Amino acid sequence: MDIAVIGASGDVGRQIAQQVVAERLLDRSETLTLVGNPEGSSARSTYGLAADLTDAYAEIVPIIDVVLDPSRIRSDLIVAAAGATPKPSLGTPPLDRDGLAAANAKIFQRYAQAIAQNGHGHEIVVCIANPVELGVAIFAKHLGRQRVVGMGAFLDSLRFRQEIGASLGIRRERIHAFVAGEHGSLSVPLWSGVHVYGYSDTQLAQALETIRKGVNIDTLWEAIAQAQARIASLIQDGKVQEAYALVEQYPPDVRVVIRPFVTHYSGAKTVTGTARATMEFIRTITQGADVLVSGQVALEGDAYGIHGTIGVPFVVGNRGVDRVFELPIDDAERRLLCESARLCGEKIARFL
User: What distance in Å separates the CA atoms of residue 92 and residue 182, rounded to the nearest whole number?
Assistant: First the structure.
């Protein structure tokens, strides 16, 4: 299976390209295509990245191709990582993801149209760049919704499991949990479906009640907004250590949103975590296994009555979205998920 990384010389794209080679996701007869922008600095740096990867992994490197023309992308799995990101600058007001939509919509459109017109018709596209729901919506419009998925809810779910594990003092691998909804502050943690290995139903209910610290699904978004406001103030004052200390005071579902918020604006950004999560996701696809995950997909009423692009659980395989699952969730989670989809849909509609 050949893989292309759009935006390969960017922060996340570079990490993904390096890990694809280092972890031998492709054999030497398969092709890793590094896609750059002919009008930007990546027109030069993408060639340099290709040379650097060959130098570092000469014994195992696959065929590496550099492409600057979107019409020349010929791959089976395409990671769409190109796009503007908020400037991770302390002392300046943080930019929310909605501010990226106007610039990145044009990038999504350019690549989606080129792949639709010139591809082989079976590509799977994994969207990373934000707003991820907008990326999925635009690519799905051109390629079909089965072949396009977004990483937002997948990454949020990994973080949710990690934060629950941190609160319980156990490893993430013992926890089954999903996050749905819009990636970011309008996410919807599906607490009703959380399972922890080694806990009885009674033990789990008691433990989760304790670690949620009084925040319920109806007050979650307000709690996130208040936390972000407090943290943004610290960030603007350059108080990163204090911001991280404040993060620890919140319950897991709030920390899922605000910890990466601090990480990004610390200047480190969330590059490594995003790249690792993406690798886990694309490895699932390349191995041909059908796995239940959560991610952004385009819906047509096939889950919770939602029409639009939003994060929900679905089965992913080597053809993309195999089927969407409407997992049983409680009424409050369903209401919040539908509201997240409605609000997200209003933003997406401006660019379709």
Answer: 25
| Residues 38, 41, 44, 50, CA torsion sign | negative
CA distance 188 to 256: 11
Q: Which tokens hold the place of 352?
A: 């379709």
In the predicted structure, residue 132 carries a pLDDT above the cut 60:
yes
Q: For residues 118 and 63, what is the distance between their CA atoms, to the nearest angstrom?
A: 21
Percent of the chain at pLDDT > 90 equals 87
CATH number reported for the structural domain that contains residue 229 in this entry: 3.90.110.10
pLDDT digits (tens, 9 = 90+) for 80-89: 999 988 776 6
Radius of gyration for the chain, computed over Cα atoms and rounded to the nearest angstrom:
20
Among the candidates 134, 152, 170, a domain finishes at 152
Residues composing the chain:
352
> What is the reported pLDDT for 97?
64
Residue with tokens 């692009």: 309
Q: Which residues contact 62 (CB under 8 A, 6 or more apart)?
A: 21, 26, 27, 28, 29, 30, 31, 32
- Residue 89 has a pLDDT of 64
Q: What is the span of the domain harbouring residue 26?
A: 3-152
**AA letter at 225:** A
CA distance linking residue 192 with residue 174, whole number of Å: 16
Largest CA distance in the chain: 59
